[in-house]
Amino acid sequence: KSSRWDSTENESKHLPIYRHKAKLVQAVEGSTFLVVTGETGSGKTTQLPQYLHQAGELSNGKIGITQPRRVAAITVAQRVAQEMQCTLGREVGYQVRFDDCTSQDTVVKYMTDGCLLREILADPVLSQYSVVILDEVHERSLNTDILLGLLKKMFSDPAKSTKGRSFPLKVVVMSATLETDKLSAFLGGCPVFAIPGRTFPVTCTFGTAVGPKDVESTGYVKEVVRMALDVHTSELAGDILVFLTGQSEIERACDLLFEKAESIDYRYDVQDQTVEGLLILPLYGSMPTDQQRQIFQPPPSRIRKCVVATNIAATSLTINGIKYIIDSGFVKQLNHNSRVGMDILEVVPISKSEAEQRAGRAGRTSAGKCFRIYTKEFWEKSMPEYTVPEIQRTSLTAVVLTLKCLGVHDVIRFPYLDCPEERFLLEALKQLYQFDAIDRRGKVTQLGELMVEFPLQPGLTRAVLKGSSLGCQDLLLPLAAMLSVENIFIRPGNPEKQKEADKKHRALATKSGGMNDFATLLSVFQLCKSRPSAWCKDNWIHWRALKSAFSVETQLREILLRLQQVQDFPVETFDGNKSELFRRCLCTGYFTNVARRSVGKVFCTMDGNGSMVNIHPSSSLFDQEADLNWVIFHDVLVTSRVYIRTVCPIRYEWVKDLLPKLHEVDVYELSSVARQ
Ligand code: ADP
Ligand code: MG
After folding, report:
1. Which band of pLDDT confidence, cut at 50, 70 and 90, is reported for residue 115?
2. End-to-end C-alpha distance for the chain, whole angstroms
3. What is residue 27's predicted lDDT score, i.e. its pLDDT?
4. What SS3 class is residue 352?
5. CA-to-CA distance for 262 and 241, rounded, in angstroms?
6. Stretch (H or E) spanning 219
7. What does the alpha-carbon distance between residue 18 and residue 24 come to, in Å, rounded to a whole number?
8. What are the Cα distances from residue 589, in Å, to 617, 633, 658?
9. Could you tell me which of 537, 336, 347, 527 has the C-alpha nearest to residue 431?
């Protein structure tokens, strides 16, 4: 096998994990569960699967490695394919939602935790795998936490865990932090393998500028840019890693940096005369993969690299050569908002442990420096000690349905590493009942069995299934695809250009009949099928996002066809026009998101929370409020106000029979079943 290795082999021999290869393989062989810990960058993710693959017995089946983030799954698989000198998708592959790059030959498979959860639905004992590695467990993503519980449960019943298997399954749990005692205890006191790592000291300094006020004005972007330039001009050679929260912010910071870096005079302004330029690289989830690859390449000589990244660079991906960290102190996080009763992506202060993790990235190969733009006071007063696990702060609807379909009926007494609040579980049960996915006794209905097959949020799935019963899946499938990809409409930062983009988008909305944002999405999908990419550019539409929407639509269609072949689908008829048909289907999935205009431009939601909301300016219904009465909406944006986005008008009659469901069920009735 060694002949297939190239220079990356030498590189990988220098990773801290290399010296422990034999012992590690032994430890995996010797125990059902193993916890592996080690500093970020020690080689856990890229090397361990290769070691296990080379070790005879453990390669009887596939080796699966889960990641909470899709970008991590993809980039790491690319790297490992390169190290093993094979084509990506052959021996080494990856699978993330809507993107499967594996084949019959794939033996080392990187995937998101959500994908493995889906595989368990189809094959509860994971019979094809000899090793499953749950990676980045310290991130405490919802799906990883559920997988931990499921795997624990699987082995608590020996008869079940071996049924239908021809070789044993080993489970490795990897975590960057030292919170391993808790993991080991959870997994029945399993062994812990700690990879000793070298780290170098990192000096951290606090800033003077950023306080809690700056979250809304995003004043921290400017501060981060100022700091990065300061480091570039006054510090010795070494690359910079900047932490921000998301794509638009990162693009803006890169633009600003680029502009300012242009005017540097390297003869006078720069301290270190070996530095002669700045290479600015963004890094975020929805970036094209060829661009992502650049991140890992060393910069040309005498050029300093500056990577502006989301939290993904904190532990999932390691970039060599980083000596300076600029930490904005913020992260984008999905949180359940009880004010509006929905999950909302919001920018929040990071935890102190997260800040330590970020700083640590500067000390991998030599001593480094971390510049925090926030004050010591912000650290003390606004930053929590630890990040709350996702399972304790987001909607559990989809996960509870998955558990129920796996035969876990008592979702309250499931083995959770950290228990979610009971009210979140009850909320999930209630929503599933409202969508007809479970019955009053908490049992999965036929519709629920269908719903779980779709990698979409339950409400949207409900609408798609209604559409297929009514024979209008051609309207609902493209819509679902468009709602599943990010940023179809480009909104440039420059105010002039923004105006131009808004105008083009409004024209597209009018073209689709106007006054219905869902219909606009559908119409853009259909229009773009026959338009070249130049047309998209001209209309400020993200060509790449659209292309993925096309692919998502095909995949959703395949799922639907497959289900239609094996199950009886209810067939319904409808007489009325297409626009009404479309909106009625939407109502079956979005009756939880109904709002009625109360006064002026303000609407009131009908979900029992009675939140006061406004239509977001990006909607084609904005400024048309006077003509509206009842609307449904796709999501909510909370700033100083609560905005609803992607909106369409409906008639009260269409939801009249559905709305009572929101109040009908007594959650304790559902929970008493759950407790049985
Ligand atoms: P860990 O999982 O312990 O944090 P990794 O296995 O991710 O460590 O990283 C080991 C090394 O592999 C690091 O030096 C990292 O820079 C390198 N590496 C990982 N992915 C890539 C990639 N896509 N391209 C180049 N180098 C990579
Ligand atoms: Mg890793």
Report:
1. very high
2. 54
3. 96
4. helix
5. 19
6. none
7. 10
8. 24, 11, 10
9. 336
Q: In whole angstroms, what is the distance from residue 362 CA to residue 321 CA? A: 8
> Backbone phi, then psi, for 262, in 5-degree steps?
-55, -35
41 lines ligand 1 (CB under 6 A): yes
How far apart are the C-alpha atoms of 132 and 17, rounded to whole Å?
19
Query: Is 43 touching ligand 1 by the criterion CB < 6 Å?
Result: yes
pLDDT in tens, 209-257: 765 555 555 688 989 999 999 999 999 999 999 999 988 889 889 999 9
Q: Do residues 327 and 379 make contact, with C-beta atoms less than 8 angstroms apart?
A: no
Cβ neighbours around 317 below 10 Å, total:
23
The residue assigned the tokens 């949020």 is 457
Pinpoint the alpha helices (H) of 452-577: 458-469, 473-484, 495-511, 517-529, 533-538, 543-566
Radius of gyration (Cα) for the chain, nearest Å? Answer: 26
pTM: 0.90
Please state whether 323 falls in left (phi above 0), alpha (psi between -120 and 50) or beta: alpha
Ligand 1 centroid distance, CA of 384 (Å):
29
For residue 316 and ligand 1, the question of a CB distance below 6 A is answered with: no
Contacts of residue 660, Cβ cutoff 8 Å, sequence gap at least 6: none
Q: Are 240 and 306 in contact (CB under 8 A)?
A: yes
Phi and psi angles of residue 14, each rounded to the nearest 5 degrees, phi first: -90, -5
For a pocket test of ligand 1, which of 318, 322, 357 has the largest count of ligand atoms closer than 8 A to its C-beta? 318
